[in-house]
Amino acid sequence: MYLEMKKICLLLAFTAFSLAAVSAAKKQAARPLDIDRTPRLIEIATDNTELILKVNSDGEVLFGYYGRPVSDPSPLTEKKNYKRADLGTEPQAYSVQGGREVREAALAVTHSDGDLNTQLRYVSHKTERKDGATVTTVQLADLKHPFDVRLVYEAYPAEDVIVAHTEITNRESDPVILRNYYSVNLTAFADRYFLNYFYGEWAKEMTMAEIELTHGIKKVSSLKHVRAVHCENPSFILSLDAPLAEKSGDVIAGALAWTGNFDLSFEVDDLDILAVRAGINPYSAEYPLASGETFSTPNAILTFSSEGAGRASRNLHDWARNRNGVYKPEVVCPTLLNSWEGAYFKFDAAVLKKMIDDAADMGLEMFVLDDGWFGNEFPRNSSKAGLGDWQVNEKKLPAGIDDIASYAVSKGLKFGIWIEPEMVNPQSVLAREHPEWVVGNNGREQTTMRQQWLLDLTNPEVQDFVFGVFDNTMKLSPHISYIKWDANRHVENVGSSYLDGRSQSAFWVKYTEGLYKVYERIRKAYPDVMIQACASGGGRVEYGALKYHDEAWTSDNTDALSRIFIQYGMSHIYPAVAMGSHVSAVPNHQTAAVTPLKFRFDVAMSGRLGMELQPKDLSDGEKEFSRRAIADYKRLRPTIMYGDLYRLRSPYDAKGYASSMYVSKDKKRAVLFAYCFKYQGGYRACRLKLDGLDASKRYRLKEINVQNKPIFWGEGKAFGGDYLMNEGIEIPLKKLFSSAVFEIEEVK
Ligand code: GLA
Asked: pLDDT by residue (tens digit) across 285-331?
């Protein structure tokens, strides 16, 4: 016994010694390098913009400039901000709590010894070419602790986009706590700052607002998680010195790629300097970073435009399409009929097959079976039961999913299906078998939302389960081409029985990391299946999710009038190729609005067109109209999906018009959309100055979706590009819900 004890003691002593030796070595190796105090500029350039950081003689890396390229930026090294340096107001490239910093910090750390301060200094930087981008990495180190930060900026020259993220490495021998860990910190110097941001709620996403920033902090943020971007979107357009205009003015636009709580923080200080921070929302989200670990923040996608909002949007769209901001942007999701608003939970194989017949008859290209196809002990006949039990409901579909999918394929359609794998109804076999998988299973009341609970994706077993739901669903038929992935609640009563007591605050980050792990696995296993990001409509319209999804479901609000606003907002940041847009029945199920079928098609055709209604309720005339519209859309589709967007009239200007056009990159083709949603009086016409065309080319205008006779006197005539853009055209849109779509083509 004594000998045994002695052995154990020796072993423990040896282990303790070895651990101490290891950590001492780590500590030594990680000691900050000598600080290079040579003043220098770090230039990050795209074709038409430049972001410049400057290193001062203290080795601090400061924010220098973001705007149009300057031929000789060297005076920036000399630029003394008068007494600002003494006051601690000199803006850092990445603001950190510690030293003289008095603003809210992009990075705040509690070091392993409890020190709340960090003072970063320049160590080195390098620039490399990678996949068409110029990647600049700036290495920084703390003055006191072995603690490193790397600022990474990927510059995409032709798109004028800079994608920034930060990597934070703990080389201390014990864990540190990250309290703030934003992706990026920008500074702007102007007299006035006009912030344009996007807010809303369920069925009212991407509503736009502009406010002038005054001293203090304005935040656009989410604390809801999961469908985190329903109520505020992680994107902004900042207009410098004047309110936002479509074609002129200096603007900085940005979007954060993160499927979780985010924070965009705009702080105007006492010297009228604006600091913009974008990143994961640090509220209640302290993150323990173990010794030797690196934390990488999500990407912030930034652009500068000296030609107003229009150019900023086109830059972001180009980036999303050219650089896979959207998964496989070269794949356009087909026109489709979705079963939701047409059948809800009430269907059987015969109902679905009839819908498929009608979809094929109208020329649609895919049928998507929405919610309601699963659950046996707890059948999914309403939102009350069945989530979690992803077995085909034998009563509704005794011959299985393949029966429906093969039927669709036999009619020339692709087939898609709905899942909501992160969720569970209390009334389900899954909830009975795995109560420990539920978020908030912490001895408090578990609140339901839409009668459901959330599964804890921080837990690898849950990650396997969620992957399995996707995988098993795909195995239900070899004919599944498209998955609609939904998520219909957010986090309340946060808590994970997988994470230990001290790591609970890491839930917010670890859930999203778990989700991304699942997405990665799915994309490896199913690189070609199309996936739609849906979260009660537009709750996942952001670039973190879009990286793995071919498109998003823009909103559960399918009313064409509401969609004019929602899609106008979305178009500022996200491209049409990501925007699912469906024609539904009237009175609209969300708003009760009654709009003409033509108006509904004219609006839906400006995104990825689909239908979401019971086609058997359409008259023969309506079916014929739909058939023609769908056929025309297929021809116009490449221009809408891949063309440059020019917004001509804003629905927000109180005139009751909205208009936009897409112009093909070679400027040979364009599609023009114009909508009137206020009665205008007897004689008024909608004036439109077209944009984005080649001034020296001639174009013919042909109306699409004509109802009785063409609305425009110039139908079929050729006009000079300069005429269309300077004199413009007038279209007699004056009645409520009147609209027009024109196909514009170059004539030789
Ligand atoms: C969410 C989606 C809808 C539909 C329903 C099904 O609300 O946003 O499109 O799929 O769920 O329950």
From this structure: 999 999 999 999 999 999 999 999 999 999 999 999 999 999 999 99
Contact 236, 253 (CB under 8 A): yes
Note if the pTM is more than 0.70.
yes
Classify the C-alpha dihedral 171-174-175-181 as positive or negative: negative
Are β-strands 414-419 and 480-485 bridged in parallel, bridged antiparallel, or unpaired? parallel
**Phi and psi of 363, rounded to 5°?**
90, 10
d(CA 584, CA 342): 8
- Does residue 488 line the site of ligand 1, with CB under 6 A? yes
- For residue 170, the 8-state DSSP code is E
> How far is the C-alpha of 142 from the C-alpha of 149, rounded, in Å?
8
Instruction: Determine the residue of 340, 381, 382, 589 to mutate for testing ligand 1's pocket, defined as the one with the most ligand atoms within 8 A of the Cβ atom.
Output: 340
Q: What is the 3-state secondary structure (H, E, C) of 99-126?
A: CCCCCCCCEEEECCCCCCCCCEEEEEEE
Ligand 1 neighbour 341 (Cβ under 6 A): no
pLDDT of residue 141 exceeding 60, the answer is yes
Cis, bond preceding 732 (omega within 30 deg of 0)? no
Ligand 1 atom with least separation from CA of 535: 8
Other CB atoms within 10 A of residue 736 CB:
14
Query: What distance in Å separates the CA atoms of residue 186 and residue 275, rounded to the nearest whole number?
Result: 6
Q: Is residue 299 within 8 Å of 257, Cβ to Cβ?
A: yes
534 lines ligand 1 (CB under 6 A): yes
Kindly report the protein residue whose alpha carbon is nearest to atom 6 of ligand 1.
371
> Cα separation of 94 and 89, whole Å?
13
The Å distance, Cα 147 to ligand 1 centre, comes to 46
Ligand 1 contact, 148 CB (< 6 A)? no
Q: What is the DSSP letter of 431?
A: H
Instruction: With beta carbons less than 8 A apart as the criterion, state whether 545 and 229 touch.
Output: no
Q: What is the pLDDT of residues 629-673, one digit of tens each?
A: 999 999 999 999 999 999 999 999 989 999 999 999 999 999 999
Sign of CA dihedral 444, 448, 452, 458: negative
Residue 690 and residue 728 in contact, taking contact as beta carbons nearer than 8 Å: yes
Read off the pLDDT of each residue in 564-571 and give the average, rounded to a whole number.
Answer: 98
Instruction: Check if 555 has its Cβ closer than 6 Å to any atom of ligand 1.
Output: no
Nearest to 301 by CA among 281, 317, 282: 317
Query: Torsions phi, psi of 550, nearest 5?
Result: -80, -25
Instruction: Answer yes or no: is pLDDT of 420 > 90.
Output: yes
Distance (Å) from CA 52 to ligand 1 centroid: 45
- pLDDT computed for residue 442 by the predictor: 81
Mean pLDDT throughout 482-497? 96
Position 30 pLDDT exceeds 90? no
Q: Which of these, 643, 577, 299, lies nearest to 567 by C-alpha position? A: 577
CB of 486 sitting under 6 A from ligand 1: yes
Burial 468-501 (b: 16+ CB within 10 A, else e): ebbeebbebbebbbbbbbbbbbbbbebbbbbbee
